[in-house]
Amino acid sequence: MHTFVNRIVKQFVKENLSVFPAVVILGPRQCGKSTLVKNMFDEFDSFQYLDLQNRDDLTKLREPGLFFKENESSTICLDEIQLVPDLFSVLRSEIDRNRRNSRFILLGSASRDIIQKSSESLAGRIGIIELTPFLISEIEHLENFTLSRFWYRGAFPDSFLANSDTASGLWCENYLRTFVERDIPNLGFQIPSRQIMRMLSMTAHLHGQIFNASKLGESLGLTHPTVKRYLDLLSQTFILRVLEPYSTNIKKRLIKSPKVYIRDSGLLHNLLGIRDFNALMGNPVFGASWEGLVIENICSSLRNCQFSFYRTATGDEIDLIIQKNNKTIAIECKASTAPKLSKGFWRAKEIVMPQMSYIVAPVNENYKIKDDVLVCNLSEIIEILSKELPK
After folding, report:
1. Where along the chain do the CATH 3.40.1350.70 domains lie?
2. Are 89 and 117 a contacting pair, CB within 8 Å?
3. Reading across the β-sheet that carries 306-311, which strands appear in turn?
4. What is the pLDDT of residues 360-387, one digit of tens each?
5. Pairwise CA distance, residues 200 & 175, whole Å
6. Looking at the domain covering 143-388, what would its CATH class be?
7. What's the CATH fold of domain 10-130?
8. Per-residue pLDDT averaged across 312-318, rounded?
């Protein structure tokens, strides 16, 4: 990657390294985990980087105890840790032998639920951080940044920074193929790659909609439990975001099923065969694509918040509800420069009673509709929420 992008999470990684003997950075493959750590090389007295997909590096760990002892004063980075789960028990005894902070940085392409051994073996010894592909706040200052480019190509570094939309599309296509043919089997799941690809394709068509496992199962010829299992797997490998419904004791008939989103808009557009931004603008998924982009950037920019959506059986709806420290904020996403709100939004707002509501739209300037309802763009909402809900 030729363009250097300063990742916001870098400071949080440093804070964790000053507290824990091991820090694990989790995120999808190719989101920039190794680049982030390699950019921190000069901040360590001594540094060893091992890529566990590389046979030579793997050979160095034939006797892991010996290698760790030999490099006791170094910070050791183990990339793609999920490929060698047996290492976690060795790491635990090594950390217990010498509990110096920032001894290990572990990089993984699956969530902590899949890498269960890390949370079991290293409980209390490890800081866990999630790194996503680029956030708008990390790249909006770049010379070649435009909102339409970011929205269409998505946030994976190699896709966003590609020379053309065609090159970006080829990258996304290759990423998805590698994901279903190599990454899933590497995690120990014996699932036919065609089945996972069909599930991804069908889910792309349901992007931003209520997830009906039975209906999807019928279309795919799979049982309800199998569809749920695949959904969990795609969520824990950072491809899907599952947004749970708002739950409270109000007497309205609330929708109980979650909404699903393809987390990266570039992968979404590739799965739907949308070849450029003009084609996206004419596609029925246009509004849902914007909603996914907004929700992904907000959820990935904030920590320790509860996220949900509100929808009743009669269609009253708020796209995203954020809760933190007794504060409730409502977010409505509108892919229009002149957003209009439905009666259903106002009814939902009366029930949820957020302290503040934001309508996030591709507008140039923010403006108020009411004292507690502000229309703003994607960059501004991230800035506002970072101040209102500090980490």
Report:
1. 143-388
2. yes
3. 306-311, 317-324, 327-333, 356-360, 373-376, 367-370
4. 999 999 999 999 999 999 999 999 999 9
5. 13
6. alpha beta
7. Rossmann fold (3.40.50)
8. 93
